[in-house]
Design a protein that fits this description.
Oligomer: single chain
Radius of gyration: 21 Å
Number of strands: 10
Structural class: alpha+beta
Helix content: 40-55%
Order of helices and strands: HHHHHEEEEEEEEHEEHHHH
Number of helices: 10
Strand content: 5-15%
Distance between the termini: 59 Å
Length: 390
């Protein structure tokens, strides 16, 4: 590597332990993830062994309490590790974010007995989780979900269909939001459902533009029985639990987006430094230099925005508005930066021989998942101008 060109992000981490963790992650990425990322994505291969390795290395549990097998790391650290993983392969980075989201309900709202029983295996036992909120007719309007949990003896019986479930069909456990009461947000309850529960089945994975290695599928609940000991929180508290999880999850998506955008910049820098036209590297041409400068500025701004929100969260302060801003800005940035990276590589950028076309296809989904960017704008506006009048 020359003095100029792609180089590792210079991260300001709060502890020596966090710096050691970053070194471990970068070594793991170079050895286990990057070498096969393009090939496995093209083949639609889900890297389950990689997630087992991440679990064994303590990287599926970073923001959770040490007493339950977690890494006890602040979100400021967790998100920067997540950014590194997503830059290497979004299927992995987003998968870690989704697993973290799936653990949130139990870690934050479960009883002490529930956490002691389930969290150690969820955090460090090689298990992989998924989060089940959306339905075929209930996406942005999540409070209108219709999957129902009905009391039956000392447990519950779940019926319905969930949609757009990352890790659908391959997860070991699902955090499921189901209706136990009347219509609206107050009739929803959260449950922890085993992946091998009788009556639970997955449809064929969706055929997607990008992230082909990450299965996204509908889940069908056909008289799935769940004991009351797997109900998380109080009856009717599920929507509050879901929104709490999504606030933190949006920060995970923001970090993933910046990881993809940074990877695109690195590819563009390497290419423009080596590609020669008119007798000199194309990185010498002012038009291209200005594009690179704008791309880098947007990525640094996005990184600063998600870290500001993370530090508010770590301090126990409200961060809902900042999380929505980070998700909105970072994912829009990823879309702009990956588009520009394809342009900088010219015809080569449009081919599968270079990863920027994959980055572009992957960036698009980040503007949609865990609340579309239109929903983020609604959330931000409510913080600024109050609820919409009815």
């Amino acid at each position: 590597m020359t003095e100029y060109g792609p180089r590792p992000v210079d991260r300001r981490l709060p502890t020596e332990e966090a710096r050691d963790l970053l070194t471990l992650v970068r070594e793991l990425i170079e050895r286990e993830i990057k070498p096969t990322a393009a090939e496995e994505e093209d083949a639609g291969h889900f890297p389950r062994d990689t997630f087992r390795l991440l679990s064994a290395s303590g990287l599926l549990s970073l923001p959770y309490p040490e007493e339950f097998g977690g890494g006890q790391q602040p979100y400021e650290v967790y998100l920067q590790i997540l950014e590194e993983l997503a830059g290497a392969r979004l299927t992995v980075g987003l998968g870690v974010s989704v697993h973290t989201l799936a653990c949130h309900a139990l870690a934050g709202f479960g009883t002490k007995e529930q956490r002691a029983t389930h969290l150690p295996a969820m955090l460090g036992g090689g298990l992989l989780g998924a989060y089940c909120l959306s339905e075929p007719a209930s996406g942005s309007d999540a409070a209108s979900l219709t999957t129902r949990a009905t009391r039956e003896g000392d447990g519950w019986k779940l019926n319905g269909t969930k949609a757009w479930i990352t890790h659908g069909g391959v997860a070991d456990f699902y955090t499921v939001l189901a209706r136990t009461g009347g219509s609206g947000a107050h009739g929803i309850t959260a449950f922890l459902v085993p992946g091998d529960a009788e009556g639970l089945s997955a449809a064929a994975p969706e055929r997607k533009m990008g992230m082909k290695g990450s299965p996204t599928a509908q889940l069908h609940f056909d008289d799935v029985r769940v004991p009351d000991s797997r109900r998380i929180g109080d009856e009717g508290q599920g929507f509050t639990i879901a929104l709490s999880a999504l606030e933190s999850g949006r920060l995970g998506i923001a970090a993933c987006a910046i990881g993809v955008a940074q990877a695109a910049i690195d590819e563009a820098l390497a290419y423009t430094a080596s590609r020669r036209q008119f007798g000199r590297p194309i990185a010498d041409f002012q038009g291209l230099r200005f594009m690179l400068a704008d791309m880098a500025t947007q990525v640094e701004a996005g990184r600063a925005l998600y870290l500001t929100a993370a530090r508010l969260r770590d301090a126990g302060l409200p961060f809902s508005k900042e999380a929505a801003m980070a998700k909105l800005f970072c994912t829009d940035t990823a879309m702009r930066v990956t588009t520009d990276a394809v342009q900088l590589l010219g015809g080569y950028g449009y081919t599968a021989d270079f990863p920027v076309e994959r980055f572009l296809r992957e960036a698009k989904v980040l503007q949609i998942v865990e609340g579309t960017n239109q929903i983020q704008r609604m959330v931000i506006a409510r913080h600024l101008a109050g609820p919409e009048s009815r």
